Amino acid sequence: MSVPEIRVEELKQRLDAGENLFLLDVRDESEYEISNIGGQLIPLAELSKRVNELDVNQKIVTVCKMGPRGAKAVQVLHNAGFTHVWNLTGGIHAWSDRVDKSVRKY
């Protein structure tokens, strides 16, 4: 299955325009503490058990370190009936490289 993606530049533009996008950070807590871009933390390992904490009608962007866990999270959410979900291409590292260099890479 192909996973819908959103580039960091597009996400920044849409957030700056005031679009109501929910950032779902699927990394581990220790990674989130190192750096984050303000998303809600639900580690990928817990997502299937905690999917009820999310609004199925919300537009959700999954965030991880470099993209693969975010893609898996999109699949978990699609399987749970979510339809407005995108993976952040390149994750936190791409955000740091192309949007905000103050976001720490690790």
In short:
The protein has 106 residues and is of the alpha/beta class.
Structural commentary:
The chain is α/β, with parallel strands linked by helices. It has a single domain (5-98), classed as Rhodanese-like domain (Oxidized Rhodanese, domain 1, 3-Layer(aba) Sandwich). Helix content is 40%, strand content 17%. The protein has helices at 8-16, 29-34, 44-50, 68-79, 91-98, and strands at residues 5-6, 21-25, 40-41, 59-63, 85-88. It has a five-stranded parallel sheet. The chain starts with a strand and ends in an 8-residue tail after the last helix.
pLDDT averaged over residues: 97
Low-confidence stretches: none
SS field, number of helical segments: 5
Q: Please report the first level of CATH classification, the CATH class.
A: Alpha Beta
- Tell me the structural class: alpha/beta
Number of domains: 1
- β-strand amount: 15-25%
Q: Strand order of the main beta sheet, please?
A: 1-5-4-2-3
By CATH, the architecture is named 3-Layer(aba) Sandwich
Task: Provide the fold topology.
Blueprint: E1 5-6, H1 8-16, E2 21-25, H2 29-34, E3 40-41, H3 44-50, E4 59-63, H4 68-79, E5 85-88, H5 91-98
Any key phrases for this structure?
single chain, 106 residues, alpha/beta, Oxidized Rhodanese, domain 1, five-stranded parallel β-sheet, 5 helices, 5 strands, globular
